[in-house]
Specification:
Layout (H helix, E strand, L loop, with lengths): L3 E7 L2 E6 L5 E5 L13 H23 L8 E9 L4 E12 L5 H12 L2 H5 L5 E9 L3
Parallel strand pairs: 5-6
Antiparallel strand pairs: 1-2, 2-3, 4-5
Helix pairs in contact: 1-2
Length: 138
């Protein structure tokens, strides 16, 4: 079975439907590439996928250790190159709540995140600049 169905709606906009759940993602070309920039661009989704995958796999790892990382956040910065136009670097700034995590648990979470399936699927020339910070809740 297919994963998704994509429709070109015109004016550089596409609609992607996740077939199992009927969830929809709309994309637009970015303003620096003839688009309106009113939604995620395809390259935005690529970069965002890395962060979402990292959080998901870190969540799975946290569950294995009976650790709660609810509220963890990642900020993604996408860097574009030219000739050919492509993503050359993804900056990842992760903020993970430190709820009495041991050094071993922190290391396990970091290892899980940086080895998520999306991270391992990206070309090795694409720089993944990952910074993971732990914060104490107030």
């Amino acid at each position: 079975m297919a994963t998704s169905e994509l429709i070109y709606e015109g004016e550089l906009r596409c609609k992607a439907t996740h077939l199992q759940s009927d969830s929809i993602i709309v994309t637009d070309a970015p303003t620096d590439n003839q688009g309106k920039g009113q939604a995620f661009s395809p390259t935005d989704l690529l970069a965002t996928s890395l962060g979402v995958c990292m959080l998901t796999i870190m969540g799975i790892e946290a569950n294995k250790h009976n650790v709660n990382i609810d509220g963890a956040k990642i900020s993604i910065t996408k860097y574009m190159g030219t000739e050919p136009r492509r993503v050359i670097k993804i900056g990842v700034e992760a903020q993970i709540p430190n709820r009495n995590l041991s050094d071993r648990q922190k290391a396990a979470l970091i290892e899980a995140g940086i080895n998520c399936p999306v991270a391992k699927s990206l070309h090795p020339d694409l720089i993944q600049d990952v910074n993971i910070h732990y914060f104490l809740e107030v």
